[in-house]
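Q: What would this chain look like folded?
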Amino acid sequence: MQIEALKIYADVVRLRSFSRGAEANGVLQSAASQAVNSLERQLGVSLIDRSHRPFEVTPQGKLFYNGCREIVDAYSELEATVRGAHKNADAVVCVAAIFSIGLGDMSRYVQQFSQTHPQARVQLEYLNPDRVYERVLEEAVDFGIVSFPQRRKELAVIPWRAEPMVLACPKGHRLAKRRAVALGDLNGEKFVAFDKNLAIRREVDRLLRKAKARVEVAMEFDNIEAIKRAVEVGAGVAILPEPTLAREAALKTLAAVRLEGAEFSRPLGIIHRRGKKFYQNTQDFLGLLLKNGKGHK
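A: My prediction, written as structure tokens:
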């Protein structure tokens, strides 16, 4: 078995795609498929169940993937040491993030990184929180970015930044021109909420109960962009992270009103599998994020 075939297989599984795995290795998709087929013939087992879309990794395939990652990582580190070129060891930095991470922010960070690391590429996936955790635990990505990060024994959490929560309301709303609003002032308001299974929804609900503010939930969404659009058309008000309203506030399509008497911020954290070793490019991109996260309150 050649190391190239093992790396192709590991990347196909890690990226959950034959085409992406092929691209990561600079080969055609057909070549990536042939490499995986060859491994399956040599091993005498099925590694990938192609009858599902997206494909599923078989139990034998998962076992083989874990071993492949160890072999490929060890070989890449050895090769980088011999060549004295650690920065070429991880040409693709894979990151999974929740939908509500600012697309503009992440694009800016990727551009900055590309200027200083032209030999590397950042691959971003935007997923719901549960899928971000899954991708990190499977080591399908190098690290993930989530809000209200969960503490799990398999995961390490790096605090990134805290985003103040504010009231988002249409420009003609009775609260839009206020400098600050108490949560109690929202009693009886129509409200556009996050989905019930999200941590941010549970925290918002807790604070509203504490303030004895009963709101009428008109709509629920799992992403901030949909919530903003609903607020703009008058479906209700919402409580959102202030940085996510920068564009709408500048265009004056939405008002972002400070919450009075409630210290409420959305914590963002970077998660990775505990004990995971980062190569230089990944370390550098992580360092860029952490540097930009400092002082972002």
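Residues 1-81 form a domain with the Arc Repressor Mutant, subunit A fold (CATH 1.10.10.10).
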